[in-house]
């Protein structure tokens, strides 16, 4: 199947996007699907985002039904899925994009924070997939689920311990569900991004982290990215959405149980940073960088 044919085939499909009305990525997913002619049913807990996304989708010639729901609350998410079931007899695409990340030493966290991180990054996805399953099976023609995860699901992400564990659970849940649903031609995949423009808006870094970077000048964060991301820049939101569109289109008809890393190469490098002062790619700085730091 060619690229144009695959994208034309998306027109008329029905997608549910959990967390699809606000934020760089969630809003981008909804607009990206709408641009392809997909009818979107989205939920979010951001009322301003809900109000704004409707005219944006309509300006693209698309159709959207936007609902207020909080994935942190089981009853609220169930009520949204009740509304989806009443509105449509089938779902072709499910995207679970909502999430929450906050940087803390594990010793400084609480059980309430642990429960929040697990709910927001794993448990609601299980609930959403379970509620969606009858609708995903309804057409008998297959469907696609994409669960947003992260590079932190694949490495020892200190100061993100419970978040990383929850995302790892999502990743393996996705693999297992892909095996169960293979005969139904319901494909289940993960999309793992890393540093994007959205990262600055979701409390991944604390206020003091941004303050220290600000003291170094407005280009400091970009300079840090050059050490960390092999491509020397993070993926744009649009490039993340391109990955999503691949996973939900017929171009990936036999891709299931996989994680697509849209990250500029950081998951390939696994900690090999491009240190300055002539040190080059190594897990730890060598003489050039250390001399600079000591100076």
UniProtKB/TrEMBL annotation:
Stated family: Belongs to the short-chain dehydrogenases/reductases (SDR) family.
What Pfam family is a match, any one?
Answer: adh_short_C2
What is the superkingdom listed in this entry's lineage? Bacteria
Recorded hits in Gene3D superfamilies, A to Z, give:
NAD(P)-binding Rossmann-like Domain
Coiled-coil region: none
**Keyword Oxidoreductase included in the entry's annotation:** yes
Q: Which organism is it from?
A: Novosphingobium album (ex Liu et al. 2023)
Is ATP-binding given among the entry's keywords?
Answer: no
Q: What PANTHER family does the record point to?
A: OXIDOREDUCTASE, SHORT-CHAIN DEHYDROGENASE/REDUCTASE FAMILY (AFU_ORTHOLOGUE AFUA_5G02870), SHORT-CHAIN DEHYDROGENASE_REDUCTASE FAMILY PROTEIN
Which keywords accompany this UniProt record?
Oxidoreductase
- The name under which this protein is listed is SDR family oxidoreductase
């Amino acid at each position: 199947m060619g690229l144009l044919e695959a994208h034309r085939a998306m027109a008329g499909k029905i997608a549910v996007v959990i967390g699809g009305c606000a934020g760089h990525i969630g809003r981008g997913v909804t607009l990206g699907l709408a641009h392809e002619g997909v009818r979107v049913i989205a939920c979010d807990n951001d009322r301003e985002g809900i109000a704004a996304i409707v005219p944006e989708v309509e300006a693209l010639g698309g159709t959207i039904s936007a609902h207020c729901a909080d994935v942190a609350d089981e009853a609220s998410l169930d009520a949204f899925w009740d509304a989806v079931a009443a509105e449509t007899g089938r779902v072709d695409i499910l995207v679970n994009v909502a999430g929450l990340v906050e940087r803390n030493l594990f010793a400084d966290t609480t059980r309430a924070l642990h429960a929040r991180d697990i709910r927001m990054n794993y448990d609601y996805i299980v609930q959403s997939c379970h509620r969606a399953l009858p609708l995903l099976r309804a057409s008998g023609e297959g469907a696609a689920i994409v669960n947003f995860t992260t590079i932190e699901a694949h490495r020892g992400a200190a100061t993100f311990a419970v978040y990383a564990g929850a995302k790892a659970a999502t990743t393996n849940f996705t693999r297992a569900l892909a095996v169960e649903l293979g005969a139904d031609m319901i494909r289940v995949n993960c999309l793992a991004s890393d540093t994007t423009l959205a990262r600055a808006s979701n409390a991944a870094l604390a206020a003091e982290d941004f303050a220290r970077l600000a003291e170094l000048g407005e280009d400091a964060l970009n300079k840090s990215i050059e050490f960390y991301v092999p491509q020397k820049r993070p993926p744009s939101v649009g490039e993340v959405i391109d990955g999503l569109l691949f996973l939900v289109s017929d171009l990936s008809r036999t891709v299931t149980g996989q994680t697509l890393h849209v990250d500029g190469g950081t998951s390939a490098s696994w900690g090999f940073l491009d240190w300055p002062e002539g040190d080059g790619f190594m897990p730890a700085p060598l003489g050039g960088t250390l001399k600079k730091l000591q100076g």
